[in-house]
Amino acid sequence: MSSEIRKIGIVGAGQMGKGIAQVCALAGFDVAVNDVSDERIGAGIDDISAHLCRAVERGQLDEARRKAALGRIRPASSYAAFADSDLVIEAATENEEVKRKILSDLGPTLRPGAIVATNTSSISITRLASVTGRPEQFIGIHFMNPVPKMQLVELIRGIATEDRTFETAKQFIADLGKTVTVSEDFPAFIVNRILLPMINEAIYTLYEGVGTVEAIDTAMRLGANHPMGPLQLADFIGLDVCLSVMQVLHEGLADSKYRPCPLLVKYVEAGWLGRKTQRGFYDYRSGTPVPTR
Ligand code: NAD
Fold first, then answer.
1. Mean pLDDT throughout 246-263?
2. Cis link prior to 146 (omega < 30° from 0)?
3. Active-site residue, 57 included
4. Number of domains composing the chain
5. 149 CA from centroid of ligand 1 (Å)
6. 3, 85, 119, 121: the active-site residue
7. Using an 8 Å Cβ cutoff, are 213 and 234 in contact?
8. Which of 64, 83, 143, 247 sits in a 20 to 30 Å window from 258, CA-based?
9. Would you say residue 1 has pLDDT above 80?
10. Using CA positions, which residue lies closest to atom 40 of ligand 1?
11. Do 163 and 257 reside in the same domain of the chain?
12. Residues 159 and 243 in one domain
């Protein structure tokens, strides 16, 4: 490990926070994980543990590395646990108010020079930087889902991000064995600027009755050679995250082509958020995904 990062704090132990914690611990970093309650933090660490055990069973990881990685992860019930962190990554819910509160509370608890990053999928890095009290040491480090599997990480500088912050973040990603692409700070950056309108269009295709859930996903899997259909992928990402990204694109670029599909809004209002709530465009409760339309 060559970067000046050793200790990492993570805010948010949802699907992304857990994945980030796991890859960091496997790469030899010490990781402290925070969420809204001790129960959530505990559940997050239990999930990471179960994931690592499955990797051992499949022969993808040896027992000594599993044990060492798990030993590097600790719960952080308050930001005081981040006092010695070199880097804190915010991976909480995709909601600007939530993120602004976290980032403004976090700043004073960190040592000077510590870097703060956000894993936001879409929100302006420059705008979030403004509440951190350290915009020069703030950057977007956007991991892909699922973090342990996906090779890419997008790096996004805010207007004030210093070169040192950028270079340190780049080295950190290299230390994780992942590949960086650099994106300018525009709504949804590169991957989601392209991917989410495609998913939203798939939902319109469903909404307008052009095809069923199954027809749309099969069409894109076999007709465009995508590994997953767009509705399957939406469920995997989380429909609340998809909606938030579309709203940021719609508001940020002021173009009606980014209007979130009303059917997506309806699913989110119903609390059908995809895999994480067991129901979205598919119902996962029986173990076999069943289309909900
Ligand atoms: P998630 O809903 O699985 O997890 C979010 C977590 O944040 C929850 O555990 C929640 O309790 C926690 N949280 C909410 N408010 C908090 C607070 N004030 N303090 C601490 N924790 C808090 O969401 P996710 O999919 O893990 O997304 C997290 C971030 O990663 C979002 O910014 C999202 O846009 C981004 N992201 C998501 C994906 C994806 O495919 N889901 C991919 C890349 C980036």
1. 97
2. yes
3. no
4. 2
5. 18
6. 121
7. no
8. 143
9. no
10. 237
11. no
12. no
44: which residues sit within 8 A by CB, 6+ positions away? Answer: 13, 14, 17, 18, 21, 33, 35
User: Do 175 and 206 have their domain in common?
Assistant: no
276 is in which domain, residue-wise?
Answer: 192-291
In which element (H, E) is residue 51 found? helix 38-57
Tell me the angle at which helices 191-207 and 239-253 cross, rounded to the nearest 10 degrees.
110
User: For 32-43, how does the pLDDT look when each residue is reduced to its tens digit (9 = 90+)?
Assistant: 999 999 999 999
Strand partners, 152: 179
Q: Is residue 265 part of a domain?
A: yes
Condensed to tens digits (0 to 9), the pLDDT of residues 195-225 reads 999 999 999 999 999 999 999 999 999 999 9
Report the pLDDT averaged over residues 126-133. Answer: 97
Distances 185 to 124, 159, 188, 259, 270 between C-alpha atoms, Å: 6, 8, 8, 21, 32
What rounded mean pLDDT belongs to the chain?
97
For a pocket test of ligand 1, which of 39, 93, 149 has the largest count of ligand atoms closer than 8 A to its C-beta?
93
